[in-house]
Write a structure and sequence with these properties.
Immunoglobulin-like; 22 strands; 2 domains; 32% strand; 373 residues; single chain; alpha+beta
């Protein structure tokens, strides 16, 4: 399908507990004004899902509280009466909207955005929408687009985008309080608020209207984050080795469909996460004697496995495997490993290692080369 038309993008931060929307209550037949709630997790959240159940006595579908777990909850942060009333069918297990140490446990302000590309609308959502919630969001967006244009509109719900705020269920699913409903943190009308918000975003994008950016979101600076992962203290190579030395070389010949495995003396990968770079490259020798990278650690056919060989000495090795695809170009290849090691007296330093050359050719060519030199 060919997509033709302008590209428009709209983004807005939204303070969910302060939002309101109109909701038609089918039970009473009345149009009601509903509001968002401070974030909170319900009892069924602790029950887990069918394919990943939780611990203790928590069960999905719980709509009543327990004095013991309420006492544990209140020790961390006690919900107010308004919090309890707002969350409706959800008994609050964690009043995350009241928990701010070491920082806010769940966001009040979320990121919402839409991108219109021709007749395609991409809704970037900050949570996991259930199937029915996603369908209702698509229909709400289509309604606005159909009023603004004559062509057929295709809507894509894309998440997670910029913010994670757990799940979004329909008001009906919320009342059942299974895992997803208990994890719908802004209350029973979270979806109702999102439907209104995304309709307004789409309308603004379609009509080229200005929309305010919204309240600023919380900023978690890297320097303020707490981690329970122990730091890398130091790295040392194996006795008689240097970082980047090849412990296991590749075979001299390989064919499409083969798996080539090599092992290097290495430092700890957490010394440098190689963001926008790579821990490995598979390189082919070109006619001008230049090595051309044809695969990195981002490719499906490569694997990078780090192993600590000595906790006391801080020695490590990495195993790199390359599954040679059937359409690979015959030629001379090598595998390169890039990394960083932490010196015991301080400082982090780069290193690299390169394997011997090996030839990749169809099996018939490999047999001929062996037989006839």
């Amino acid at each position: 399908m060919e997509v033709v038309g302008p590209v428009r993008v709209v983004h807005q931060y939204v303070n969910m507990p302060e939002q309101s929307a109109e909701f038609y209550n089918e039970t009473t037949g009345q149009l009601e004004e509903v509001h968002g709630c401070r974030p909170a997790m319900g009892y069924s959240f602790a029950a887990g899902t069918t394919d990943g159940p939780g611990s203790f006595s928590f069960k999905q579908g719980t709509t009543t509280s327990n004095p013991f777990w309420n006492a544990v909850r209140n020790f961390l942060a006690a919900p107010t009466r308004d919090d309890i009333r707002c969350q409706g069918a959800k008994p609050i297990l964690l009043a995350t909207g009241r928990m701010k140490l070491p920082y806010q446990w769940q966001p009040n302000i979320v990121s919402t955005q839409v991108a219109i590309i021709g007749n395609i609308v991409i809704a970037g959502v900050p949570a996991e929408f259930t199937t029915m919630s996603g369908r209702r969001l698509r229909e709400a967006i289509k309604k606005v687009m159909n009023d603004a244009s004559d062509g057929e509109t295709f809507v894509i719900v894309a998440g997670l985008c910029n913010t994670y705020s757990d799940y979004v269920t329909t008001p009906e699913e919320y009342q059942i309080q299974r895992y997803e409903g208990a994890s719908t943190i802004y209350g029973p009308h979270t979806l109702t608020i999102y439907l209104k918000q995304y309709q307004e975003l789409v309308q603004a994008a379609a009509q080229k209207k200005f929309i305010p950016p919204g309240p600023p979101a919380s900023k978690l600076l890297q320097s303020n984050l707490i981690t329970l992962v122990p730091p890398v203290l130091y790295d040392t190579p194996r006795w008689g080795r240097n970082f980047g030395d090849v412990i296991q070389q590749p075979p001299k010949f390989a064919s499409p469909g083969d798996t080539v495995t090599v092992i290097f003396v290495a430092g700890h990968p957490r010394n440098n996460l190689m963001t926008d770079s790579t821990f490995l490259t598979v390189e082919r020798l070109e006619d001008d004697e230049v090595w051309l990278p044809i695969a990195t650690d981002a490719d499906w056919e490569t694997k990078f496995q780090w192993t600590r060989t000595s906790m006391i000495l801080g020695s490590s090795q990495v195993t790199i495997t390359w599954e040679i695809s059937q359409d690979v170009k015959p030629g001379e290849y090598r595998i390169r490993h890039n990394g960083y090691y932490r010196y015991i007296l301080g400082g982090v330093y780069p290193y690299y290692g390169v394997t011997n050359h090996f030839r990749v050719a169809p099996a018939l060519q490999k047999i001929r080369r062996r037989n006839y030199g």
